[in-house]
Amino acid sequence: MRFQDSPVIRRSNGGGVMEEGHLPVMAEEVLSTLVPFPGSLQIDTTVGGGGHTERILEATSPDGRLLGLDADGAAIARVAARLRRFGDRLVLRQANFRQIADVAPDAGFAAVDGLLFDLGLSSFQLADRTRGFGFRAGGPLDMRFDTSSGVSAAELLATLDADELAAVFRRYGEEPQARRIARAIVEARRTSPIGTAEELAGLVERVAPAPPRGRRRVHPATRVFQALRIAVNEELDALAEGLAAAVELLRPGGRLVVLSYHSLEDRIVNRFFQAERRGCVCPPEAPICVCGHQPRLRLVTRPSLTPTDAEIAANPRARSARLRAAERLAA
Description:
By secondary structure, the chain is of the alpha/beta class. The protein has helices at about 25-35, 50-60, 75-80, 100-105, 125, 155-160, 160-175, 180-190, 195-205, 220-235, 235-250, 265-280, 310-315; strands spanning about 10, 20, 40-45, 65-70, 90-95, 110-120, 250-260, 295-300, 320-330. Helix 7 (about 160-175) crosses helix 8 and helix 8 crosses helix 9 (about 195-205).
């Protein structure tokens, strides 16, 4: 399971008034690699709880502007209310980052100095009992970031056959018990549909219980929930499309920073960065380059960055985070 922001905390806004805030993952590392500066144009492609957004806006004061995107309309409304003090320096749009090639120019961000992709699931989403993102909070199995479109997790569980379900659990969750769990789901839905997070988590725990020993007990349904959420939101395809569009939006010297939380995402990011660093995308067997593709990125992080022990101790949800950053080369 992935987390973008820690649970809500209380902090001073500098005027003696306490307000809700967030503890974004690897905040210092994000700022040091993104390098937002006064007057710059930035894009936060997943505003989530607004933690990174707030810090970037502070760093670009007094006249820098930021475009914040999120597929979740609740996140957009929440950040709009919490960060209203930034006025027109903050522009918000409800959109998936796979749409950034169209959304950014329309919002006045056709050429920018920095883009942040924080691929984590926010604590607000996990705690929302109407969405079913997490088995601890429970609720109807929806899992859509944008609840106005697409197919819910419950619909996938009700319509896919055992082979298709097993493929989803293996591909997107790397679940070793994928087939056993898929068969159990198909068998259970003959009696009644699996419609809630509690029902799904309980079923997985019964048919594929966690080992009795281990350093850290992880709920046996964790990979299944991850797989369903990725499938419902087409997250990996969206990431590939979003990264490709991001490079086109960056000015020379602009930075692209990505926080990922599991190997499937990080693999896509790493391969993309490496391909754009090398330039040529011809197959290895080609005797000479015929694609004409030139290098467009310089790696800023080599290897990737991970949270410090101190951050993990303070916020265990950050433990799986991995940060990669690259800089746009001149055309």
